[in-house]
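Page 47, continued from p. 46.
Same chain as before, 257 aa.
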Amino acid sequence: MSDDLISMRILAAFGSALDRELLRRAAAMAPIPIEIIEAAGAAAARKLVAEKEIDVAFLDAAAAAADLTTFMAAARSAKPPPFVIFVAAAAWRGRALEVDGLAPDGIVAKPAVIEQAKVMINRCIKLRLPSHVLVVDDSATTRNIVRRLLTGIRFPLRISEAEEGITALKEIATGKFDFVFLDYNMPGLNGVETLSEIKRQHPRIQVVIMTSTQDEKVAERARAAGAAAFLRKPFFPADIDAVLQGIYGLRASAQSW
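Result:
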């Protein structure tokens, strides 16, 4: 997808007809045309995802495990595959996301009011528009590794690089970045100093601190300075997926880091 995204198609297979109508009303208020396709259950949703090009599919987390598994298998084989998000009641929180080895792209709480439904719609739009990411590390090897990991995940990203804090701040001043993956140990401005300056100048930008240190105080300092998440090297695509799920608001209950 590109920044000229002009429309979306969302499959809603959760809750009651009134719940889905709430999502439909929120979609009507979106800045782009959004088609809401309703399905009364996972079986009907599976048929639709095979027949139509779906951007985001909301599936009821309370459905039977077998139904969830077969739907996710069908969704993963679709071309292009939609993002699959479980919609859960508050009581569902805390259960594992994975069903028979297949995991959705996130889980959200079922909206109760129009404002919550609008948040869901806005997150759908962000999922399909590429986010701009800056990888900051003084090691070119590490930057290449992080770039490859970011390229391999489900979320659409446009990736740039900087080798130290001052250069990163100059790049961020262009105003085009959404996320920063920032090394903690760098010459000149270290990660926390760079993080503090980013949050002072651009508070909306989400910053993920990366480090190989096992010192728990590093995570505490990063959190206190405004980091959205913390990754210990070496990390893997699943770790980045989990971080971005949190940043995109695709978790019904936050996990500590």
